[in-house]
Amino acid sequence: xxxxxxxxxGQGSRAVSLSREQAVYEANLSRWLADHxxxxxxIKGYKVDGFYESRDEALTAGYSRFGIGPLFVKQVSPSExxxxxxxxxx
Amino acid sequence: MALIRVPIGADGPVIDLGIWLARALAHALVAQGRxxxxxxxxxxxxxxxxxxxAIHPNALASIASPPSGTTLVRRPGSTTAARRVxxxxxRLAFGGAVVSPRSGSWVExxxxxxxxxxxxxxxxxxxxxxxxxxxxxxxxxxxxxxxC
Lengths: 90, 148
Hints:
Chain A has two helices and six strands. Chain A is α+β, with helices and mostly antiparallel strands.
């Protein structure tokens, strides 16, 4: 049965940081572009697990290999778009 | 196809939105013999100016969704630099979780973990989610029609 979420101000959850994984991605990106552009890389902590054809495939492999928890999946690309979200607190 | 009428109130076009774990994560939980958390319903603003759907981090925590990547987000016109936030792979359903038992009504989206400026909503429905529907603005009746 679905429930309706109501949150009080200040009822918080601390965001998990993926900064280590992001740093690994940025450090290796120029090297990966030659052979893996367009593929999805799976990173957990400092470990680069592999490259996959789809995001779903990478996530499935990640949860199977590392269990349920934070993962870093990103499409290998020379540029990264910036998402515009006008009505958000950014 | 479902026809969903969204009245445009003082706060804009606000709708119930079902939020649930992505299919890949739900399957992994089942494979490990663990229970899949129930879907939740949150209030969401339809935001045609948003490139990507944004969901309050607390709402993501309510379905135990772990982050699965990062993205850069920015407010148009803002003088500050783009900010890196977590991405969460989730399933969303217009109308809320209760009215969407059919698997076909859930859409897989990579949502940004961001706090909406309006404290009365917990999500901003962006064009990534709207891309799955036809969208009619009926100014005469003061409502939006979503045909999904």
